[in-house]
Amino acid sequence: MNDELDERRTNNNTRTFVWNLTNLEAPEFLGFYEHSTTSIDHNLYIKNNLIYQANYTAGLRILDVSNPSPGSINEVGYFNTTPMNNEPVFAGLWSVYPWLSGNKIIVSDINNGLFILRYNP
After folding, report:
1. Which of 61, 20, 19 is nearest to 40 (CA)?
2. Could you count the other beta carbons within 10 Å of the beta carbon of residue 59?
3. Phi first, then psi: what are they for 100, rounded to 5°?
4. I need a labelling partner for 103 at 20 to 30 A (CA). Which of 10, 13, 48, 79 fits?
5. Which residues contact 115 (CB under 8 A, 6 or more apart)?
6. Phi then psi dihedrals of residue 24, to 5 deg
């Protein structure tokens, strides 16, 4: 999960929080994956073992979560729709739609419109 405001409140890099929800009555916080960017994280979607995450000014970030412990998560792809800006502001990539066939991904950018991408692992 993401906290959309933690980057602005605490001046840390982008963080994706990891939970064990095996027992829904006792969720367990496992820690977080810290990105190399400072942008605000937004919408994320999990498809198979990949997280497709919109990180506003850092763009689309694709994370391998085949081993979902925070120390084992790896970034395996990205596409930045605002490469000149990595500030923790509400601009840039808003959402990700990874549900198309053929590894196609649609991303929507607040300022720059719609992009159709293909992830090639």
Report:
1. 61
2. 24
3. -85, 165
4. 13
5. 79, 81, 106, 107, 108, 109
6. -65, -20
**Residue 110 in tokens:** 């607040």
Tokens of 5: 């405001």
pLDDT in tens, 5-55: 888 888 889 999 999 999 999 999 999 999 999 899 989 999 999 999 999
Q: How are strands ordered across the β-sheet holding 59-64?
A: 44-47, 50-55, 59-64, 74-79
Measure the CA–CA gap between 84 and 25, rounded to whole angstroms: 44
pTM of structure: 0.91
